[in-house]
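Aim 2 progress update. The chain analyzed this quarter is reproduced below.
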Amino acid sequence: MNDLTTHLVSLIDTKRKATLLLSDAAVDAAARPLLAAEKMHDFCEPVLVGQPERIRELSINAPLCRERAAQLGKTTEEFVDYLLARTKILDPSSQQCEANRSALAGFCSEKFSREHIVSEKECKWMFEDPVLYAVAGTAGIEGTRREGHCVLGGLASTSRDFFIPTLRLHRHTGTVSMAVAFTFQNSTNPAGYAGDLLVIADVAVVADMDSRRLADVTRGTAELTFDLFCPEPLDKVNVAMLSYSTGGSGSGGSVEMVREAANLVREETRNDRTGRWERIALTEELQFGPAVSEKAAAQKLDLSDHANGAAGKANVLIAPNLDTGNVLFHLHASYFRGCKYVLLPSGFDEHSVIDFSRSSRVNDVVNAAGAACARIQKLEDFRPIEHR
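Predicted structure tokens:
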């Protein structure tokens, strides 16, 4: 596989750029949104959300900006001003956003009036906050102006301030989850893996798993993997639903949940019209070894059986719970230090939200933005947003 960033950008039509809002530009002291925007211009329209003076102040004081400026032989002020001059900034407190703040306030005051006693005036004041305005401005709320296709946040804001509002305001079908795609082209490929790409889910969201949620996670992760990595570098998407049991070797509530979830996925994709599931193989109830090693799989399963099509050569691992998924994510990220990875949200109808870990790096933001743009452009009703 080529470099991860190069691959993702190659999927994007750069003549029809999506607009991505960077909600933490005015709160991230590391200036990662600004530095990410520097690299995102080639494939999307990045927009920094917040007061320009505050964004500039944070950026000038950020060590990453000082380092980057020194590499280019510029002062930090020169470098920051150059980046700000070529990047759109959306200030929610400005007169330019007044009408949209009022429309958003009216919508939210009516929507949440039964749960919270919040006046429209109070809501309008709340939408001067850059994070909340960016969340609402990408939600496609009827009667309001859409400011972007996708919002990128969580770098310096809490789940309460960013992710929970996105769950309430952005349309999503079923269960929202988080996958991570690893590429091993610059590191030693882990023994037993069939290729240099591995996707793992759920790694960050679903704390209380059941068969319905697990089915959503499985289907969403399989389809996003197909959208981004098939037919290149993956000729086929092989999905293994992990368990402590392989092919009936064990029993228990968790095993039953995995089996039920697999049956739900098969039922829901039986008449799939997208063509994705012609190239997706799904095998449930696999221990880690039989999932990734054909030798281990052959000892426990009949590999000529169509139902075991993903066994031994899985490139997508579905964890039965968040503990397992999160441990697998951090194990790979820390042990295989030469690997590259990108976080991939699943479940939002329009691929409109990316929630980052606070430890995310600039390249993590760029890669996730590239993946989001590639999927957004696949939407039937995608249209570039005209900038004011």
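The two ends are 39 Å apart (CA to CA). The first helix runs from residue 4 to 10. These observations will guide the mutagenesis experiments scheduled for the next reporting period.
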